[in-house]
Amino acid sequence: MQVSRRSFIKGVLIASIIGETDLFGLSMNKAMAESRTLKIEKAKETKSICPFCAVGCSMIAYSTGDGSVNARPSIMHIEGDPDSPINQGRLCAKGSATMQITVNKNRVKTPLYRRKGSKEWEEVSWDFALDKIALLIKEERDKNFITKDSQGYTLNQLPTIAAVGGSPCANENNYLFVKAMRSLGLVYIDGQARI
Ligand code: SF4
Description:
This protein has a three-stranded antiparallel β-sheet with strand order 1-2-3. The chain has a three-stranded mixed β-sheet with strand order 6-7-8. Strands 4-5 form a two-stranded antiparallel ribbon. It is elongated and about 110 Å long. It has three domains: 5-35, no CATH class; 44-102, Phosphorylase Kinase, domain 1, CATH 3.30.200; 145-194, no CATH class. The chain has six helices and eight strands; from the N terminus they run ααβββααββαββαβ. The chain has helices spanning 5-17, 28-35, 93-96, 98-102, 126-144, 171-184; strands spanning 44-49, 58-64, 74-80, 112-113, 122-123, 146-148, 154-165, 186-191. Helix 6 links the parallel strand 7 and strand 8. It is of the alpha+beta class. Helices cover 32% and strands 23% of the residues. It starts with a helix and ends with a strand. Iron/sulfur cluster (SF4) is lined by residues 50, 52-53, 55-57, 87, 91-92, 94-95.
């Protein structure tokens, strides 16, 4: 029987797949078994909360990197946390797509600021952004804080600023958020979950 180069390689390949031999030292059986192990097997687990709505489903983010100084962790997979009494490992369609906002070149990672009269947004530091926000709140409060109404009743309100809390905030975060906003006199306070 004449054996061509092509049929020889095909034969060895088939034999290696069914486990009869190794292909040039590479056992396809071992390679196939390896591909069946979970890709998250050696990943680091970090518990988190879905950023989308007030249900507050728990998530586990799996990342590579062993935590050493020069290793840059990168998230490889996100799924529902089976230990959570809220979602018991499940995520809705939106929550299941969280990976797309986590690892996305369009994700905004620094505060953006548009100066008066400018058409462009520029990246600024968190210190700059926080100082700017504090200054604007102070200016607005000094200008529009109402201590009494027309009949002399005490109001102590600042009706020209509204505040919206984030959906992943826990009760404790929201408690502090509302207390801080009320201490400034805000009356229009809401949560993203109701929007
Ligand atoms: S997974 Fe769905 S239901 Fe759960 S918090 Fe996220 S958006 Fe809400």
